[in-house]
Amino acid sequence: MPFALKVASKDFHPPNHVSFDISHPPPDNKAFESVTAVKNLQRPSETMNIPLWPTHCVQGTIGADIIPEIDVAKLDEIVEKGKNQQVEMFSAFADTFGNKSDAASLDLSALLQASGIEDVYVTGLAGDFCVRRTAIDARKEGFGVYVIEDAIKSINSGESGWGAAKVDLSQLGIQIITLAGVNPREFQFL
To answer: With b meaning 16 or more CB within 10 Å and e meaning fewer, what string describes 23-58?
Structure first.
């Protein structure tokens, strides 16, 4: 299954990103447990609680690199997301409030539309956060969307994590597919 355009996204956070547990004082700074309220920078009266994470994908560190098993030379674009210290961005399309901003390195929807892309296949980490939001936003942008279930990994693979995400995705007409029965050579493009 050759793809017309191959795009990867990656978190690319400053060291003091709002989602990092170390950016908040104890005792309410436990990764995977605590939440913090963030403001919508485009509509400051709007807030949202986001989970806190361990420090990850910090700009200028090896943790922000795409894994070596993926040949980045075969990618057409890489979207760096979460670049603004104050903005959480699970989706490769928009921040948690749905805003397109400088928190991402490029406007993914515009790129896909300019390239004549109609369908988006989503894989990666984390199924219950970044994959879920990217798929939902791709659908909102008018693309046909497929999530390749055996090519994702979730923070919470149980019913309250990936299970709930699958329900959300299915209700929006996003198809959850697997690689079963697909010739693996067709996917050896990266």
So the answer is: bbeeeeeeeeebebebebbeeeeeeeebebbebebb
